[in-house]
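Example 428, ligand nicotinamide-adenine-dinucleotide.
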Amino acid sequence: MKATSYNPFETAQKQFDRTADLLQLNQATRDLLRNPIREYHFSIPVRMDNGKTKIFRGFRVQHNDARGPSKGGIRFHPQETIDTVRALAMWMTWKTAVAEIPLGGGKGGVICDPHNLSKNEQEQICRGWVRQIVKNVGPYEDVPAPDVMTSAQHMLWMLDEYETIVGEKRPGFITGKPVGLGGSLGRKEATGYGVMITVREALKELNIEPKNTSASFQGFGNVARYAIELYQQMGGTVVCVSCWDQKDQTSYAYRKKEGIDLQELLSITDPFGGIDKAQAEALGYEVLPGDAWLEQDVDILVPAALENQITQENVNKVSGRVKIIAEGANGPTTDEADQYINERKIFIIPDLLANAGGVTCSYFEQVQSNMNYFWEKDEVLGKLDVKMTSAFISVSDFAKMNNLDMRSAAYVISVDRVAQACQDRGWV
Ligand code: NAD
């Protein structure tokens, strides 16, 4: 399922407009929140290993910072577009608000494919990205983080460049750093665990024991694998995962009806979350077309790869047994598909709530970095559980009280908090 002409920013704006109507926001607040407050487009010249210089396109979008410094990841992706970055930045604003952490929303990206870049070339892109944007980011302005195809190593190169330019140690500039060099314990688990904490709470509401459930995942990267880890600890069975196959330039779904073995699959997974097809077959996995993850006869679906994956065209393939869709990825469901899911009364845990564990732990990392005092892993994960559970309960209570679906409830709560902050500051 490749992204086609779908424009995630249009989806994000539509979602915002609907919420603005519900909240009866005034025109100035709508005009302010409908678009990013600032955005930067720049070129990053990189001397490639072959001695030639190549120019990469980079972006940073700061959607809103009324509640605190902008916060959001940097994606490396060959199909990155400014509208994708704008949508993701807006979603970060709502996400930090729904999780009740004192941050705004931002996002960045570089159009590149790390699969085809050496380590040195990737380092030069990271350092070049920071050189172009250094005046407009920082621990109290805008704090980047890893996202699709960027890692702790990329963050460390960026931090090193930033600290070299500003001439002092400022580990709070960026999050997702390696543990021991300003990173937080629990960060790598945080997004996936956060997804499963919300699933655990949804199962409680539906009166279903996790051990009696099964799930299918799209994606086998950072988010999916830790969500799977916690889900299996809760007693659930994962029957299918899908991921991108770099060699064949398509996606495949790997199925084992009795349940996948996480460690076994991880042992045949590349650093980008792609599974070795031949080895998976040898281990007894059925290899199906990538879309098959959506069609499994399971209780829980977790899209944890890309945006725009559950669409009008494929949503009717979702099995009648599915009770929960937990959006690990950002924007995996289109508007039309969302309506269908609501009609089917499937319990949707929207992205801004389900995957807020990542930014929550990034906030913990920022706090620890600024204090230069680091917490034990249990403390981090305990605080994460408290924050995620309380965000879930606020949204779910609000949804029930106002007869709204979970996505609308999460939007109303978060847009209201941001609008209020803008009004209190006297911006609108
Ligand atoms: P990742 O790069 O670690 O993994 C992405 C996974 O998706 C890989 O397994 C890849 O093979 C798979 N994939 C790519 N294209 C696919 C396709 N067409 N079909 C099936 N699988 C495909 O990324 P991640 O960090 O796990 O992020 C996944 C999603 O979660 C993204 O939408 C990201 O924005 C969102 N997210 C991530 C975090 C975080 O902390 N990492 C936080 C919040 C949201």
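Summary: The CA atoms of residues 115 and 246 lie 8 Å apart.
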